Amino acid sequence: MRYLWWLVASQWPRALRGSVVGSAWMIGLAVRPYLIARAIDDGLRKGDTRALLTWVAAIIGAGAVVAWLGIIRHRTMTFLREDATARSAQVMLRHLARLGAVLPGRVPAGEIATVCGTDMSQASWALTMTGPGVGAVLTYAVASVVLWEVDPMLAAFVLLGVPAVVLVVGPLLNRLQGVDTDYRHELGELTNRAGDIVAGLRVLAGVGGRDLFARRYADRSQRLLRQGYRVGAIVSWVQALTVGIPALFLAAIVWLAARMAAEGQITVGEMVAVYGYAAILSVPVWFLLEGGFMAVRGVVAARRIIAVLRIPPEPGTTGHAPDGPAELHDPQSGLTVPIGRMIGVAAEDPADAIALADRLGRYTPSEVTWGGRPLGGVDPAAVRARILVVEHDSYLFPGTLREVLRVHDGLTDAQLAAAIRTASADDIVESLPGGLDAAVEARGRNLSGGQRQRIRLAQHLLAEPDVLILVDPTSAVDSHTEARIADRLHAYRTGRTTVVLATSPLLLDRTDLVAYLRDGKVAAVGTHDELLATEPGYRALVVRTAGEPDAATGARR
Amino acid sequence: MTGDATHTAGPAQALPVADRGTVRRSVAELARAEKRSVSLALALHIAAAVAGLAAPWFIGRIVDRVSAGAPASGVDVLALAIAGCVVAQILLSRTAQNVGNRFGERANATLREDFVARTLRLPIGVVERAGTGDLATRSSVDVTTVGNAVRQVVPTVLIAAIRLLLIVGAAFLLHPALGILILAGAPTSLTVARWYLRRAPQAYLAEGEAGSELTESLTATAEGARTVEALRLAGARTREGTARIARQWQTRRATLALRTVFFPVVETGYALPAAAMLLAGGYFLSEGWVTLGAVVAATLYAQQSIEPIDHIMIFLEQAQRGVASLSRILGIGLVAPEPRGVATAPPGQRLVVRGARFCYPGGRDVLHGIDLEVRPGERLAVVGPSGAGKSTLARLLAGIDLPREGVVSLGGVAVTDLDPAERRRRIALVTQEHHVFIGTVRDNLAFAAPGASDQDMCRALAAVDADWFAELPDGLDTALGDGARALHPADAQQLALARLVLADPHTLILDEATAALDPTTARRTERSLAAVLHGRTVIAIAHRLYTAHDADRVAVLEQGRITELGSHDELVRAGGAYAALWHSWHGDKA
């Protein structure tokens, strides 16, 4: 509620204008029945041509004024809503960008999509209450006065009757929405099925089963059809009654007014006007009813927005980072990362390697020290600026290839080219239409697994961190490419600290030093060749020759 | 979802869109198929609208009687008649809408089922070249838009049109000149509507796109939150998001600008009919051609005509969008379906490639004359640098793509002559892609082998070491996919492998089946794979050299040509490119 209030308060002049224009427009709607009544009474009945012309001119003029008021109201309210939506989006954007690694554990991604896609606009629609909502109340009051002057009894009947009819029809409409919601839910399911089939077309092309899926979809579609029949049976009643009940009410008014006219209590013109007022009075009452629904939904939506905005960012720690390049040490595994060298880490269990990367990157609490001081005590922002972990599923944002690679401003195309070459990604740039200007979809969906991995590598190289930690950087590329990357990576990172967690001999051969991790602990340290010669376990791990059944071909040697 | 290097290289080829004539024909066909319900609904709607027109008519009569000085009781019958007409209108329009709804539902079901059936018959090459994005949009947005149009827009516009026609008719009955003059607002309305409709679809499309782009951008920022922090992209993401917000604001202003012209002109026009009725009525009345009641009734008709015109105006834009969506849905039917194949299944299992050349449309050749014979039961590894054409070769072998020149045959029959379903039962292609379909575990397995029993399925899952299956609450009935239980990538891959065990093809083509998985997952998957491969011909596209090492033969593919072919030992002895790589990989110093 306070959030909605903030959205209104931050643009109160606009909200005020919306109220004024909204009221004027709605009152304007009631003017035409009045003018028509005068034209009938003063012009037609008396045969007074001048009066008739005057009133007709007034009808046309009033029509133009009401149309003008209508569009001003619509524009003002649209701006009010759009401003609110943009404001919500901006606040959300800043917050999401600031949250960082805290976020994934706190809110499922689908929730964010719902909040951004639906809730923000629903919160904005609630603001409609400020303009026409106020107008509706005012209009009702004005209509009361006018009707009272025609006849108090008739006025009481109309003024109480209209809300009563709306209150009867409102729940009916609600019911219509309820029935329709179930149908829409089922329809959504069916749409998902179709999307599912489209997404799985390639799998179906590889294994077969298309006919079965066509049949299954058709079955589901027939179910929706039957549900549609049931909904239609109810909806048609509701639609007929929502028109019919007000029409019956109007008939009652006509009857009352006609009797009064016959008895001379009111004029014929007034009788026609009463008919018109009653028809038009339903506009403000509808507005109030609908506005009420919107406000309720808006409050719910605002609550969901607030829930995301309330997630606190990671509390900052004050510790300073070491001034220059410093040694990283992980007591848990016993690993020490030497400054300015490239060290390979070959872990028996890949899970140990991932855990180690998480510790060194300060993603999990640990006893890791950086230049002698606890890494956990250092300000996270300072750590991120200097120590970078390249994760297997690091997110690729949509944009051109150049935008994806330019992780900070000031990177030149030449620098990009150097990183691309190091990651052996030249062929990707060449094969994509437009080269560096080619579009990369979210998550790199339009790239193959190997291409994504190389683009990620180039991207992280360009961040130029003091310490670069690579987790299986070449697991998805072929051996030829892997050999090239291994060579170039070492040259590119010369003089800077690099940790390569991998079991590929091609990569490990090009490192300065290798640590062999068994049961999560460093079992041996040496060059790749030394370890091959002295550590049978290491040799078995990286070369996989004797004894182990080769999984990919099922052969046993 | 994983694309493949070679597909993204080719230019995207959009799926076709049906032209006006095709759309018109298929709509006519839908209506003709149900002549009875369509005409019944129309007749009922007309009757209901006639009943709805009674009120102004009777009010006119009341005015005449009152003017003539009738007593109060004189109007009772007329007022009762109004109420009677309203009740009749309620009943008639309810029945009309129900009949119409049922027809609409049936039409919708036919359209969407046709669409899915045709989508499933699309040749996979066509789908890949167009990108699945287009097809996904057609299956969701377009099918829903057409559904809404059939369910809401068509009936609303139809009813409004009927009412409008009858209102004009009623005014005409009062006096022919009044019937013409009640259309006084039409010229301006039609002119501005034409103007609006020429611009609106594009503007609203842009607005919708900007909206979903903003949502996508925000969602991406949330999904990639860890990366935003690691690469310190907060500034860049905020800039990007702000640009999207600005774009949304801009597109919404554009549509608002259109409405700013459209609405006031149309609304101003609404005053004209009533004014015309009063003016003309005044003149006719003074000449004694009509009664005062007739003029009042005509004026009320003029007021009543506002609502149907309003409905038509509001829904015109949506109707237009519905037609556009319908032409995209029907467009799928214009693609020639995958050829069914005529040849009977060959008894042989020998897979032979002769002089195969291949290029993606508009590109240069990716394969330059491949000759290869795969012996039944052998394990053949295909290695080579990225972009050498390994995946393309795999697709030719699986019969998914046709060679531009040359032939791929199975047991002496060209694979493309085989019925696709028959072919898949014999040769299966396993890629990095694994898709878990919405449905139960059983649904996810059954389509690979329609005759499989529950026992077969459990056995297949056990064969690939799918130990997670034992922990599922409802066994084979556990729901998977989209919102239901999410499977770990390795589990999903195992499910895909269990499918293969059930499908039982004699030849398997593995295209880097484990490349996109993280190392832990990859290892588990490889173990499951071993169970599937037992006793089959295997062609493995590989980037791991140990795969090649253990294969019966190795083919080295470079720049679209097979440059080396032989057993691992032979190739190492030959001292070519493969040997060099092997030595470096193995840790031997040359």
TrEMBL record, chain A:
Q: Which residues form the ABC transporter domain?
A: 280-544
Which keywords belong to this entry? Membrane, Transmembrane, Transmembrane helix
A molecular function (GO) held by this record is: ABC-type oligopeptide transporter activity
Q: How does it sit in the membrane?
A: Multi-pass membrane protein
Q: Which residues form the ABC transmembrane type-1 domain?
A: 33-285
A Pfam family recorded for this sequence: ABC_membrane
Query: Where does it live in the cell?
Result: Cell membrane
One GO cellular component from the entry? plasma membrane
Quick one: signal sequence residues? none
Q: Where are the transmembrane segments?
A: 20-40, 52-72, 125-147, 154-173, 234-257, 277-300
Quote the PANTHER family the UniProt record gives: ATP-BINDING CASSETTE SUB-FAMILY B MEMBER 10, MITOCHONDRIAL, ATP-DEPENDENT PERMEASE MDL1, MITOCHONDRIAL
Descriptive protein name: ABC transporter
- Look up and give the organism this protein is from: Catellatospora methionotrophica
From TrEMBL, chain B:
Primary residence: membrane
Query: Single GO cellular component annotation?
Result: plasma membrane
Start and end residues of each ABC transporter domain: 351-584
Alphabetical keyword list: ATP-binding, Cell inner membrane, Cell membrane, Membrane, Nucleotide-binding, Transmembrane, Transmembrane helix, Transport
Q: Which residues form the ABC transmembrane type-1 domain?
A: 40-321
Task: State the superkingdom.
Answer: Bacteria
Pfam families documented for this protein? ABC_membrane, ABC_tran
Q: What is this protein called?
A: Multidrug ABC transporter ATP-binding protein
Per its record, what are the GO molecular function terms? Answer: ABC-type oligopeptide transporter activity; ATP binding; ATP hydrolysis activity
Q: Which Gene3D superfamilies match?
A: ABC transporter type 1, transmembrane domain, P-loop containing nucleotide triphosphate hydrolases
Topological type in the membrane: Multi-pass membrane protein
- InterPro entries, per database record: AAA+_ATPase, ABC1_TM_dom, ABC1_TM_sf, ABC_transporter-like_ATP-bd, P-loop_NTPase, Type_1_exporter
Q: Where in the cell is it found?
A: Cell membrane
Q: Where are the transmembrane segments?
A: 40-59, 71-92
Asked whether the keyword Transmembrane is assigned, the reply is: yes
Its organism's taxonomic lineage begins at: Bacteria, Bacillati, Actinomycetota, Actinomycetes, Micromonosporales
